[in-house]
Amino acid sequence: xxxxxxxxxxxxxxxxxxxxxxxxxxxxxxxxxxxxxxxxxxxxxxxxxxxxxxxxxxxxxxxxxxxxxxxxxxxxxxxxxxxxxxxxxxxxxxxxxxxxxxxxxxxxxxxxxxxxxxxxxxxxxxxxxxxxxxxxxxxxxxxxxxxxxxxxxxxxxxxxxxxxxxxxxxxxxxxxxxxxxxxxxxxxxxxxxxxxxxxxxxxxxxxxxxxxxxxxxxxxxxxxxxxxxxxxxxxxxxxxxxx
Length: 243
Known about the structure:
Layout: H1 15-38, H2 41-54, E1 60-64, H3 70-75, E2 82-87, H4 90-102, E3 109-113, E4 126-132, H5 141-151, E5 152-163, H6 171-190, H7 196-206, H8 211-220, E6 223-230, E7 235-241
Parallel strand pairs: 1-2, 1-4, 2-3, 4-5
Antiparallel strand pairs: 5-7, 6-7
Helix pairs in contact: 1-4, 6-7
């Protein structure tokens, strides 16, 4: 099980409450800083997720931890009739709603405030479910994955995009230096929430990736699990399905 890292070490709030507060705090700056910190490579990763989902011809997609809606908006490139974006942070969702309206996608994308560990949907609702850079923020990873399995239709596809740690030299050393020194510094300089980007770095470093996460997915009940490392292993796309 992943080590539980919280955004605010001196707070008595639960991780879930702290994550919601943190993303509310950084919602207005999140998109811009995210592009800078990732050098824009995250855009390429999301397109790969969209292509993998589109191959399944889903009608209804759920994007969990949708944030400001980047992946939900990208998923509108598929033939899906409806995309539901769910997030615990109302601040992030408000930014997302503005982006969706600007692109005139209100008829296809719905943004919903909700808890990933207590999804407000019936069993077997969605043809495809995605989570991009949000699964490590779950307070109870196995409970959240269990909820995802519950609302995913049989034979449906589940796709995770999450940070991971490179295992080969010199990428491992470069990644560790950047995420532990540079990324928190950028956050402190340009974010009003000085703890947020330190948390995002720390949570990425302790989150299970590769075979470890695949093993957890199989334990929950997912089948056909696959890990696809991206860009020297700094991120990984995971595929899974449901019997």
